[in-house]
Design brief:
The complex is a heterodimer of chains A (261) and B (278).
Chain A: H1 2-34, H2 41-80, H3 87-125, H4 128-134, H5 139-177, H6 182-192, H7 195-222, H8 228-260
Helix pairs in contact in A: 1-5, 2-3, 2-5, 3-5, 3-6, 3-7, 3-8, 5-7, 7-8
Chain B: E1 11-20, E2 23-33, E3 38-43, H1 49-56, E4 64-69, E5 72-73, H2 83-86, E6 89-92, H3 104-115, H4 120-133, H5 150-161, E7 168-172, H6 180-197, E8 200-204, H7 208-214, E9 217-222, E10 225-229, H8 231-235, H9 240-247, H10 250-254, H11 259-262
Parallel strand pairs in B: 3-8, 3-9, 6-7, 7-8
Antiparallel strand pairs in B: 1-2, 1-4, 4-5, 9-10
Helix pairs in contact in B: 3-4
Classes of the chains: A mainly alpha (261), B alpha/beta (278).
The complex binds adenosine-5'-triphosphate and magnesium ion (MG).
Magnesium ion binds at residues 49-50 of chain B.
Chain lengths: 261, 278
Amino acid sequence: MRMLDAIRELGFRSLGVVAHLGQLLLFLLSILRASLLPLRPRRWLEEIWGQGVLSLVIICVSGLAVGMVLGLQGYNTLVRFGAEGSLGAVVGLSLIRELGPVLAALLVTGRAGSATAAEIASMVASEQIDGLRMMSIDPVNMVVAPKALALTAVMPALSTLFILFGIAGAWLVGVGLMGLDGGVFFSSLNNAVRFEDDVLGSLLKGLIFGALIGLMATFRGYHARPNAAGVSAATTSTVVVTSVAILIVDYFVTALWGFQI
Amino acid sequence: MPAPDADRPHVVLDRVSMAFDERPVVDGLSCSFPRGRVTVILGGSGSGKTTLLRLVAGLLRPTSGRIEIDGTDVAALPESALAPVRARIGMLFQGGALLDSLSVGDNLALPLRERTRLPEKRIAEIVAARLDSVGLDDRVARLLPGQLSGGMLRRVALARAILLDPEILLCDEPFSGLDPISVKRIELLLSRLNRHHGMTILIVSHHIASTVRLADRVLLLLPGRAVAGSPGELRASPDREISGFFDEDLDESLEPSGVATRLDPLDAEPRADGSTPG
Ligand SMILES: Nc1ncnc2c1ncn2[C@@H]1O[C@H](COP(=O)(O)OP(=O)(O)OP(=O)(O)O)[C@@H](O)[C@H]1O
Ligand SMILES: [Mg+2]
């Protein structure tokens, strides 16, 4: 009987997950459908600007810090094999392929994703969303779609910014502190990076993570319970669920993108 | 717009049930709201008053039953087909529900910009006129909703609700959390809208004093049943569960004594002689 109960519980849980994924898919479709009619270029620009500015400082600072740590660790390891000349390649590739998109996405989730979920959820709680519906203004078109699209659009840019600051950080440590030759640093980076695999793959990851953050944050906010507890639940769950989803999706994108080329 | 038929009720609920997570909140409710009258909905906390207003506005879909507005069953319409019905309904939300990110003026202009093709100049005139009609001057238009006092916010929200001249006005606790003077102001505005514009008004309220002054009819939501009648009838009912709602005036007893006399100039019994001050 115990066993049966456990199996039944498992069944219910899986059904719940499937239903949730279904809801998420329907929400995505409603965003896509509502995003164009009417077109609101001004709202989009406002949101792109707002979301970008929100995360700009933490992206730059974190990128620099991560790059400096990578520079230090990389130099100390490579120097044992007499390969410190490859520091640029090692740091650059790990940033471009993995750390840039993933860490930037986690930071954007914590900053802009949580802010988006909280903002929409509090619009639900204070009946602003219902107020729009009473005026026959589609809240998905006016509020949700611009935010989701803005997060998608700014992520590749923020990820690239993170990578650039990261490389700058590694350069500071390797060249500035450890006395590596600047020309060697950049030529090893230049020789190692391939545009189609590495750079395009990096941008693609940024785009996919951005869409993921945009979808999850707006979904959690829009379906929040209409009270203060609902707002905080939406905010927390956005950060937790989206962060885990980013790490899982990262594996699959890496695997598929790698095999395809 | 169908020709208004004065004898038919404006809003009719026919065996409407509503459940949240299988828990019934409204259970087989049938009632009607007469055209051009003020109906106050009373009931204990959690009795489903807000839910009832949201059902009439089409913001919630009933689990079963019909909700007719001018003969159209709104419960059967999809969200996309509700626009023409909603154009005839104004809703005053409890917290105002103004968009935080827009100024008061932009909040009021929003439905005009979205729903009409009026030039900006005309929109500005309408906004100013509406603000004036709720007793606020033009300077308020530049403020953000967060910068307004509770009473001003409620009046701006009322201005937005009546912006497109609705036939039906739904008000969720329009007096709650307001000082006595603001209560009187809102009360006068509502009574003026009803008498001068013939608006059908549904008010959810705990404010018994205002209820008795404003209401043509009262709908009382009790556990398992609903009772409708004039305030006088219900107050005189032998059923203690019904009349009990009227004997203890909590709102008044909370106000410092003497407020009523100091309010006299505004408190000119708006319904008594047909003239509204202000
Ligand atoms: N969106 C919702 N999801 C789940 N339950 C809800 C929802 N809206 C309302 N309820 C429940 O329905 C019941 C009635 O709520 P409603 O807001 O209509 O009551 P009310 O009469 O307006 O009460 P109050 O006087 O406290 O405002 C409450 O128990 C509430 O918890
Ligand atoms: Mg309520």
